[in-house]
């Protein structure tokens, strides 16, 4: 593991309750989606050598940690989140030697590497699952196998063990003729859930994690790690199974019930995470663990991330990116700013005494935030809103995560045809909701996919204005695996890198402020003017120092809300402006007039 070479917070400043302060308290993490980052061999897919070639760019940006989405060997059914061999690199991305080179070169630059860990499920092509198809094999109960429902012929409709649906559409059960039973998969049918109740499964996972840490990786981002403990009755039966004492939820509009309440944050969640900490991380220094945490409340986040409980360093919570829709993600709604503020306040206050927060608005599963909550209809609005949204997020207490291209203000793909999409979830959802269940019209569903598809975040990184945005050579033998965004000629690294007014330059400032000012990383947080529908305002305080953060989250000029106006009533001078997405003189005038211009965002020293 590399030595951390950024300024760290003094131990006199309390962060998450650990002593001494963890190195990541004022760090910034950058997520790389490898297949879309940089292609060096012209096959249309990004690769490990491509990431290595761009390390100087990432070091210049100022980030501290690189999180790689999965690069393990995989059939790529779900873009690598279906792993067939945890101890090898998929040829799509390169070799183990390429991974070793990336680790070495990143560490030379003081950058840490965190790998995606996908252990709620494997690929159905993993050797463990192949062996599990035999009831006589030692791996027979490494997955969730169940017989057909009594009175039904195995493999026929209605014979599934219960009515659970997959999050990717269709039944969550797949019949396996070789074994004569069904296996459970919360996601794709090629992603069978591992049975964490079996200690052999857990220790095989821990052995693999130790193998990677010994090889030099600096930690793990743990995919849907809060789905590993399932609720069963006293006889080990799942809800809705024949004879189960646990009642299932009602069937929904697509014809299936929801397994999430019975799989998220299950009864042994804390036990499993604490065991992992002991078996893998005890005795090691310099690592980072962050868990993707569907179904976890802010209060539970406090417990899991409290260092006294020995589980994880931080979690990704999802309420703030799940609420702006009408029941399902494919029916998006406009941003309800007071609701967003309430959710974020819940996150912040839950870890005021112990634990830690992760800060994100984008990742490989979310649409581009500038298209979602900002305004990409014009260049001026795109730049202003991208900066405003970045400032809003980075001024919270916690660890910020930047998703590749976010620092450029990259936008949604704006695809118009279904054949332009590659995302398994989107394509399955269209088939399930439009063609099979007929619960959404084609036009409405296409609009929903355009706004929420995971492919919005997966178009190639925009390095320059050439034919394929510099992701791959203009004369490469293969086109990129997914279309390059049509606006890449205007939005790219080459055009922003040396532009002091660019989104990229603004993100560099935000990242530097977190390194330089302990109040931003660890100061107390307090929401003000919670009910205002346009302005997001809060204070940060540490000792005698106090900051005011004010963001106009709309595309029109708005009045400062009451409490915010009171805080600046005595006047703000240019030296009081820590950062603004306009310029200091402009923002001083705005504040003096008791208003903010469209997307105006500022941090003020009080």
UniProtKB/TrEMBL annotation:
One of its GO terms (biological process) is oligosaccharide catabolic process. One of its GO terms (molecular function) is oligo-1,6-glucosidase activity. Its EC number is 3.2.1.10. CDD domains: AmyAc_SI_OligoGlu_DGase. Gene3D superfamilies: Glycosidases, Golgi alpha-mannosidase II, Oligo-1,6-glucosidase, Domain 2. Keywords: Glycosidase, Hydrolase. It comes from the Bacteria. The keyword Magnesium does not apply. Residues 31-458 form the Glycosyl hydrolase family 13 catalytic domain. The keyword Hydrolase applies. Belongs to the glycosyl hydrolase 13 family. PANTHER family: ALPHA-AMYLASE FAMILY MEMBER (PTHR10357), NEUTRAL AND BASIC AMINO ACID TRANSPORT PROTEIN RBAT (PTHR10357:SF179). This is Glucan 1,6-alpha-glucosidase. It comes from Bifidobacterium reuteri DSM 23975.
